[in-house]
């Protein structure tokens, strides 16, 4: 489903590669944690998978697309099959919860009838039934992240990429969010979650890909993660 | 892409960036007004040219006994000379109409024109020379007539009214050029202001744009609200400019000038309407191109 072959990424005006010679293969339906300290290349890995960046060398295959040759014109259509969630939620402050989720469907031209059905359905799935009329600032951090997750999955993507989704949340709320992602995963969506939060990783016992200085130093099933001191 | 959704985005975009939208409207209005004025002035000049040129005559005055011109050598034109000139004129393809004004007719006309002036008393028949009044098929070809008859035997002088009008049209041309030049500057202004406005609007909506790109909205979906916004404000500006041109024409020209005399020589609302599609077309083109160019940076995937 997601396949990195000998991928190296060097950002312009940087001498040190953000990722160097990374090989990772994520199968359909997997749940993978990408862990490592800040600056280890987790976000770069996700940005490459989302085609927000292009690999300097090596090939990135996502959902059947070779991203190194995918033309810019075809990027939007590719992204419709991928959901993405971020640490900072990225909700639109002027729109209600309903509108925020509906926005993702409106801008890709979904018919209004489908939107009317999908939005409440998805909000119920993430546990926000009855909060559709609220504005983001009237919600807690955990609830806001649920809205962001609802928006990411409302179009039923094959893959959900999460970049530190619990980075701004309390440990208890973080676990709730990861359990929600787990439920989405069990429904068939491939989930890749970058985090440096050891508790959530250890709670889940899923596959862990550990990065350090842009290099994959560990790739294990049912693994735990011991965050380095000072990086929690 | 649903029409209602785009309309909503456009409306909220305009509301959030109202002062910029207003300035684009005003600058577009002023630039298009100036351009329209320049073009209307040119049309006015053209209309007047047509009007006057139809009436322009070349007058060939024949010698009298009192003529001082060297060509006359102190002798009145003979009948043979007069006939020869008339035949030559009639044979010229450039000439539409020739009529001969005898000394007696010239005297009558003079008395009629200056009937309230004491000068009439001193003028005798014969003081005003006989002449040929020549109407040209193409008024710009007056030089042909002038050159052929200036030194012809029996011709005292060739006068052509074109020279007088030329100065007048020269002035109108300068006014037009200046007004179009100002309009050009204003159009540059309007274009830059549109670019700035779009950049600001895109900045205000950077979150929306970011999310649209994230969820895979097409580039046209992202661009459309901006382009429509620009079109709305730019077209409001042109609309106002056209309204002002029409109003200005009515108030200043058609009511202020002497209608009876110059009616056919003046431009009217029709000329404004003829200009309107070009003004709109030009502004639409500028708005769309500016939007596309300015948004490139925000759409790079």
From TrEMBL, chain A:
Enumerate the SUPFAM superfamilies for this protein: P-loop containing nucleoside triphosphate hydrolases (SSF52540)
A matching Pfam family: ABC_tran
For the ABC transporter domain, which residue ranges apply? 2-230
Q: Which UniProt keywords apply?
A: ATP-binding, Cell cycle, Cell division, Cell membrane, Membrane, Nucleotide-binding
**Annotated Gene3D superfamilies:** P-loop containing nucleotide triphosphate hydrolases
> Which GO BP annotation is one of this protein's?
cell division
GO molecular function annotation: ATP binding; ATP hydrolysis activity; transmembrane transporter activity
A GO cellular component annotation here is: plasma membrane
User: What interactions and quaternary structure are annotated?
Assistant: Homodimer. Forms a membrane-associated complex with FtsX.
Could you say which protein family the record assigns here? Answer: Belongs to the ABC transporter superfamily.
Task: Identify this protein by name.
Answer: Cell division ATP-binding protein FtsE
**Which organism is the protein's source?**
Knoellia subterranea KCTC 19937
Source organism phylogeny: Bacteria, Bacillati, Actinomycetota, Actinomycetes, Micrococcales
TrEMBL record, chain B:
For this protein, the parts annotated as crossing the membrane are 21-41, 171-198, 231-253, 273-295
* UniProt signal peptide: none
Q: Which InterPro entries match?
A: ABC3_permease_C, FtsX, FtsX_actino, FtsX_ECD
Where primarily located?
membrane
Residue intervals of the ABC3 transporter permease C-terminal domain = 181-300
One GO term under biological process is:
cell division
Q: Does the keyword DNA-binding apply?
A: no
* The organism's place on the tree of life at top rank: Bacteria
Q: Where is the FtsX extracellular domain?
A: 56-158
Q: Which family does it belong to?
A: Belongs to the ABC-4 integral membrane protein family. FtsX subfamily.
- Task of the protein: Part of the ABC transporter FtsEX involved in cellular division.
Q: What do we know about how this protein assembles, alone or with others?
A: Forms a membrane-associated complex with FtsE.
- What is the name of this protein? Cell division protein FtsX
- List the source organism: Knoellia subterranea KCTC 19937
Taxonomic lineage per UniProt? Bacteria, Bacillati, Actinomycetota, Actinomycetes, Micrococcales
């Amino acid at each position: 489903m997601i396949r990195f072959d000998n991928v190296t990424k060097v950002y312009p005006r940087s001498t040190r590669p953000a990722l160097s010679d990374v090989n990772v293969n994520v199968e359909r339906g997997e749940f993978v944690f990408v862990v490592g300290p800040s600056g280890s290349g987790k976000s770069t890995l996700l940005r490459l998978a989302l085609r927000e960046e292009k690999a300097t060398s090596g090939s990135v295959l996502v959902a059947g697309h070779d991203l190194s040759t995918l033309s810019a014109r075809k990027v939007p259509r590719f992204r419709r099959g991928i959901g993405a969630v971020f640490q900072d939620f990225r909700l639109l402050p002027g729109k209600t919860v309903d509108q925020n989720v509906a926005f993702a469907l409106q801008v890709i031209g979904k018919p209004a009838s489908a939107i009317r059905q999908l939005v409440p359905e998805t909000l119920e799935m993430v546990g926000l039934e009855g909060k559709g009329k609220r504005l983001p600032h009237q919600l807690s951090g955990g609830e806001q992240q649920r809205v962001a997750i609802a928006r990411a999955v409302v179009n039923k993507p094959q893959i959900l990429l999460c970049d530190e989704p619990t980075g701004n949340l309390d440990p208890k709320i973080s676990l709730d969010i990861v359990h929600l992602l787990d439920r989405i995963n069990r429904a068939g969506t491939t989930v890749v979650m970058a985090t440096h939060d050891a508790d959530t990783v250890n709670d889940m016992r899923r596959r862990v890909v550990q990065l350090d200085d842009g290099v994959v130093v560990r790739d294990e099933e049912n693994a735990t993660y011991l965050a380095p001191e000072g990086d929690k | 892409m649903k029409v209602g959704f785009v309309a909503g985005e456009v409306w909220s975009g305009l509301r959030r960036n109202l002062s910029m939208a207003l300035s684009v409207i005003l600058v577009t209005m002023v630039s298009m007004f100036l351009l329209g004025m320049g073009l209307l002035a040119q049309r006015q000049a053209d209309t007047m040219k047509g009007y006057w040129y139809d009436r322009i005559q070349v007058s060939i005055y024949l010698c009298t006994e009192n003529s001082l011109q060297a060509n006359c050598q102190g002798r009145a034109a003979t009948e043979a000379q007069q006939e020869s000139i008339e035949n030559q004129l009639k044979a010229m393809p450039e000439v539409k109409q020739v009529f001969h004004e005898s000394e007696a007719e010239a005297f009558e006309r003079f008395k009629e024109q200056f009937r309230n002036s004491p000068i009439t008393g001193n003028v005798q028949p014969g003081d005003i020379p006989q002449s040929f009044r020549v109407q040209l098929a193409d008024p710009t070809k007056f030089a042909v007539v002038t050159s052929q008859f200036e030194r012809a035997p029996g011709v005292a002088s060739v006068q052509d009214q074109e020279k007088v009008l030329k100065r007048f049209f020269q002035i109108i041309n300068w006014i037009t050029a200046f007004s179009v030049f100002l309009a050009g500057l204003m159009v540059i202004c309007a274009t830059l202001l549109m670019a700035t406005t779009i950049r600001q609007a895109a900045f205000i909506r950077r979150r929306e744009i970011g999310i649209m790109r994230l969820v895979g909205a097409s580039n046209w979906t992202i661009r459309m609200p901006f382009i429509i916004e620009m079109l709305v404000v730019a077209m409001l500006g042109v609309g106002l400019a056209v309204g002002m041109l029409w109003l200005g024409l009515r108030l200043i020209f058609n009511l202020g000038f002497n209608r009876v005399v110059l009616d056919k020589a003046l431009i009217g609302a029709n000329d404004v309407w003829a200009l309107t599609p070009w003004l709109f077309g030009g502004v639409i083109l500028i708005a769309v191109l500016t939007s596309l160019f300015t948004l490139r940076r925000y759409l790079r995937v």
